Structures are given as structure tokens and as C-alpha cells.
Amino acid sequence: MAAEDERGARLTVGAPDLLTLHESIAGMFATQGDWQRAYQHLRSALDIARAGSLRDTLTSSYNRRYLDQRLPSLPSGRGLALALIDLDRFKHVNDTYGHLLGDRVLCRVADLLQEDLPADGFCARYGGEEFVLVLPGLDAAGAIRLADATRVRVARHPWSELQPGLRVTISVGLAYASADTEAAQRQLLRADNLLYAAKRAGRNRVAYHDRETARVITHSE
């Protein structure tokens, strides 16, 4: 547990520290008149700053800006699944245990969501307690299996080790499209509608379209 928290700390503070280091070294070389080495460190600082602008500052997952940039540039010729994920009753977690613990829950969930993603797949924090999994290269059945395995992974995580009595689950709206058949933003809107279907069905579920009908995977816990 401590190792996981330490890893999260390295992700969130490591890049800004490195940015400051490169800026300081660039300033030192500039005062010495070594403009080439100063320029090299300024370029490194710029690269770090650019990468940091695409990461969520709390969870270190990608952010909405990265999602908006990547969706149009995903390779064509393959299927694409988008899973919109919401933490169930997260306001209750904040109200009961406090926002500091709520932040730790968000970080832990982000880590769990990023396990076992396909090649070129990624997780982005969409806003608040919502995340998006971008899953290219899977067929519809594979996307459903992955989404439900993710839901189960979160539900079965030992949350009581973080706080006695704590339980966390997620609801998932999964929208799948074969290659080049639907704009990604419209597909994301479908995932949002399916997420509400999962919530209405009782939460801790994955909702997806089967032909013309929305079907819901019920949880097994």
C-alpha cells in the first residue's frame, strides 16, 4: 500500500521538480555564456511542461485535453470502443470520509482502470469522478469483456484497507463502433447515454448496445 502511494507521489511531483531543475541549469549555463547547453535544457523544460499539460494533476492519468487531441488521430481501419466510467455515489464518499480520502480513492481507481489496457489504449480523466477508457483494436465482445473485468477489479479491490467500511464501485457506458463508421465525439455521447442506463439499472454495471437494444451486464458480487 505504501509503495503504491509513493508511486503516485513520484508521478505527481516528479515532473515539476525536473522542470525546475532544467530551468535552473539553463539559467546557470546562460550566465556562463554557454548558450547551446542552456538551449538544450530549455528545450527539455519545454518538453516536460508540454507533457505535463496533458496529464491530470491529481491522478496522473491523461486529461480531457489529451483525450480531445488523441481521438481524431487514432489509427483508422480498426474498431474503437469508448467506455465512459463514473464512480458510484462518490459524493457520499466525500461527505462521509472527507475530500482528502476522496482524492485517494480517485487516484486508486485511476490506477485500477489503467490495468490490462490493449495496445494504444489509454485512460483519461474526463472530469470530476468520470473517466474514459479508449480501447482501439478490439471487437465488440472483447471490449465488453474488458469493461466488465475492469468493473469487477474495482468492486473487489480491498477498499477497507484504505478506510474501514469503505466500498467503491463504478458504472460503465460502453459504446463500440467498427472502423470509420462514427465520429468519436458522437460515440462518446452514446457512451454517456449508456452510462445513465447502467446507473438506472442499479449501478456497478456495464451498459452497452446489442444491435438496437441496450443490454446491461449485471454484477456478480
What does this structure look like?
The protein is of the alpha+beta class. The chain folds into two domains: 2-52; 64-217, Alpha-Beta Plaits (2-Layer Sandwich), CATH 3.30.70. Helices cover 50% and strands 18% of the residues. It has seven helices and six strands; from the N terminus they run αααβααββαβαββ. It has helices spanning 2-31, 35-52, 64-70, 90-97, 99-113, 140-155, 184-200; strands at residues 80-87, 122-127, 130-136, 170-177, 206-210, 213-217. It has a six-stranded mixed beta sheet, sandwiched between helices. Strand 2 and strand 3 (130-136) form a beta hairpin. The relative contact order is 0.13. Mean pLDDT is 82; it is low at 1-13.
What secondary-structure arrangement, pairings included, does this model have?
Layout: H1 2-31, H2 35-52, H3 64-70, E1 80-87, H4 90-97, H5 99-113, E2 122-127, E3 130-136, H6 140-155, E4 170-177, H7 184-200, E5 206-210, E6 213-217
Parallel strand pairs: 4-5
Antiparallel strand pairs: 1-3, 1-4, 2-3, 5-6
Helix pairs in contact: 1-2, 4-5
GO molecular function: diguanylate cyclase activity
Protein name: Diguanylate cyclase (GGDEF) domain-containing protein
Domain GGDEF: 78-211
How would you summarize this macromolecular structure in one to three sentences?
By secondary structure, the protein is α+β, with helices and mostly antiparallel strands. It has helices spanning 2-31, 35-52, 64-70, 90-97, 99-113, 140-155, 184-200; strands at residues 80-87, 122-127, 130-136, 170-177, 206-210, 213-217.
